[in-house]
Amino acid sequence: APLWGPSGREQRVHDALKAQIAPFVDEVRTDGFGNLLAVRKGREGGRRVLLSAHMDTPGAIALNVTDKGLIYLAPVGGLKVHHAVGQRVVWGSGALGVLQYEHVEEPKDLSFRKLFCDIGAATKEEALERVSLGDMCTLAGTVEAWGDLVVGPGLDNRLGCAVLLEVAERLGSGPHTVIFAFTAQGEVAPRGAAVAAFGAEPDVAVLVDSAVSGDQPGVRQVATRLGGGPALRLKDSGFMAHHGLAAQIAAAAEAGGIPLQRCVSPTGSEGWTVTPVGPGVPTAVIDIPVRYPGTGGEMADLRDARAAAELLLHFLGLPLNLA
Description:
The protein is an alpha+beta fold. It has two domains: 11-57 and 153-315, 3-Layer(aba) Sandwich (Aminopeptidase), CATH 3.40.630; 59-139, Elongation Factor Tu (Ef-tu), domain 3 (Beta Barrel), CATH 2.40.30. It has helices at residues 11-21, 81-84, 124-130, 155-170, 192-200, 243-256, 271-274, 302-315, and strands at residues 27-30, 36-40, 48-54, 59-65, 70-76, 88-91, 96-101, 115-118, 136-139, 144-146, 149-152, 177-183, 204-212, 231-235, 261-264, 283-290, 298-301. The strands form three sheets. An eight-stranded mixed beta sheet has the order 1-2-12-3-13-16-14-15, with helices on both faces. The chain has a six-stranded antiparallel β-barrel with strand order 4-5-8-7-6-9. A three-stranded antiparallel beta sheet has the order 10-11-17. A hairpin with a 2-residue loop joins strand 10 and strand 11 (149-152). It is globular. Zn(2+) 2 binds at residues 156, 187. GO terms for molecular function: aminopeptidase activity; metal ion binding.
C-alpha cells in the first residue's frame, strides 16, 4: 500500500525517501517547511540544478463527529467529492473508514458538506478514540502492476519521487550540483517547491509531476497518452515554461532517442511558485501522464517514468547555457 502522507503530514514519506536517497548524495537535510533536500555536488564552474517532486497526496481532515460516530470532513488538496464517495480511506492513526454521503435529490447537490466517513463506531466517544478532530485521511488501497501499467492511489506524485530516486542512484559524478527536493504541501496552494527554491538558489529548476493523460475519456484539450513518454509542460493555468530551458530538455530527449510529449495542462503546477523566487529561476515541468488522477484507481505507464529519469540524466550532462 502507498505510504500514508497527506499534505502537511508527509513525515513517513520523508523518512522513507531519506533512507533511500542518502547513499547516493553528499548531503541530506530537512528545511523548516518539511521539504527533504538531498545534494549531489558537481564540479567547479557547473550549474546549480533543482530537481523537485512533491511527496504529499490529497486527503481530508476531520471537522466534526456526530453522536452516532460519523466523521464530517473538509478536503485537503485535490480530493474531489465525486471521486471520494464509496472509497475506503485510512487515517493517520491506522483506523479504516469508508466515505459516504447524506441523501441528495440530484448529483449536482453533492458536496463535502454532505460527505462523512464511517469508521464503524457506534458513538461519538468511540469514534474519537480512533480519530481526533484535525486528523487526516487519504484514499486506501494497494498499487498493482498490470504489465507496464501501475494502478492505485497516490501515483500523483509518488511517481515523480521515484523518478528523482532513480536519477540520484544513476547520476554518478557530473558537472552540475544537483539539489533533489521532495517537497511538502504540493497539493495545497502549493508552497513547498518555492521554499526549496529559495533555499537552494538554483540556476535552473525542473519539476517532475503528474498530469491528466489525454487518452482519458472526456479529456479533449490534452494530447498526451500513456506509453508515449514523459510530457514537457509548455503552459498551465499559472505557469509558462522557460523557452530556453524547454529547448534544452527537448534537445536532450532528441539526442538520447527518448520519446517526449508536449502538453498544455488545464490544471496548475508548482512551476508558477518557483519561477519568481529570488532574481527569477528558469523553470520547466516534466509530467508523467496519469489517467483518473485524484481517484483510488490512478493509472500510469512505468515506461513513461523510466523515460523521464533517462531524460533528466541526459539533460544533466549538458552545459546548460540558456542564453
